[in-house]
Amino acid sequence: MFEEIIMKPIFNALLLLYSLIPGGDFGIAVILFTIIIRMLLYPLVKGQLHQGRLMRKLQPELVKIKKAAKGNRQVEAMQQMELYKRYGVKPLRSMGTIVIQLPVMIGLYQVIMIITLQRDQVARYIYEPLRNIDAIKSIIDNPANFNHTMLGFIDITKSAVSSSGVVPALVLLAVVSAITQYIISKQVAPTSKNTKRVRDIMKETAAGKEADPNEMSAAMMRNMMNFMPVMMFFIMMGLPGALALYYTVSNLVAVAQQHYILRKDIDELDEIASEVKPAARVHKKSSRVASAKEARITRIKAKE
């Protein structure tokens, strides 16, 4: 199922792009493929960034709801859902790009393994209409004709560090992937003057002070923002160069997309934020409904 839905379309798309490049260049084909994927993801990226910034705009109201609920989780949840519904917030929407990108990465890895280790199996995976394209027919007839390099000298079927040595160009690619990962995180990170660390917040909690969810969230995001680039650097060092190339180009396009969307989106979000009505007190109806439910539960337990 995965092979038919994900892997084969990626395989054929890459070979089609490869066949359109004069002289054939697998690296350029991967770059073009990545740009196309990122362009197709643009609506999801826009929705994800919009939701993220809107959530941050609503944080003060969420804090007020929490205080007004005075520990009543049911009332707090109801009021949060009402606020989200009023301003069109869908928290799970941010998962869209991850859900799509992960299968693409796995499918691309399988394609690279076929091109690296099973190049004689190209005919098995290629769609019938593409078989007669000269560049693809040449690979089917003689697998050694496939150009698995980028710009004619960077073998992107190898990893940056392997038993055959170090490939400086792929190490540079891993560095760029780490830097762009940090920039992406920085672009969407909330601006806050609070610089408390997770360790400090945990100490305060242990001392009896109630932890502020916003402070904890900001601290964890800062930690993740610093940790992710380092982790991605080492991951890219061990992956085939084509995957590192895909991830790096994807990050570069994402940086440009996010910069454009966030700059364009800011006026709309400021307008939405100005419309947010203060949640000075919990809605009376919601409070009464929750209290009535709690009273019924208490009576049932008493009878038991």
Molecular structure report:
The structure is a single chain. This protein is mainly alpha-helical. It has 2 domains: 2-152 and 265-298, no CATH class; 158-239, no CATH class. Helix content is 72%, strand content 3%. It contains 13 helices and 4 strands. It has helices at 2-20, 26-40, 42-57, 59-69, 73-86, 96-117, 122-125, 134-141, 168-188, 198-206, 213-238, 241-275, 284-303; strands at residues 149-150, 154-155, 161-162, 165-166. The protein has a two-stranded antiparallel ribbon with strand order 1-2. Strands 3-4 form a two-stranded antiparallel ribbon. Helix 9 (168-188) packs parallel to helix 12. The radius of gyration is 26 Å and the shape is elongated. The model is unreliable at 275-287 (pLDDT under 50).
Give the C-alpha Rg: 26 Å
Largest sheet: 2 strands, antiparallel
Based on helices, strands and strand pairing, what is the structural class?
mainly alpha
The amount of helix comes to over 70%
Nearest-integer average pLDDT: 77
Secondary structure: number of strands: 4
- Number of self-contained structural domains: 2
Order of helices and strands: HHHHHHHHEEEEHHHHH
Poorly predicted segments: 275-287
Global shape: elongated
Could you tell me how far the N terminus lies from the C terminus, measured between alpha carbons in angstroms? 52 Å
Strand content: under 5%
| Count of helical stretches | 13
Q: Strand sequence of the main sheet, in spatial order?
A: 1-2
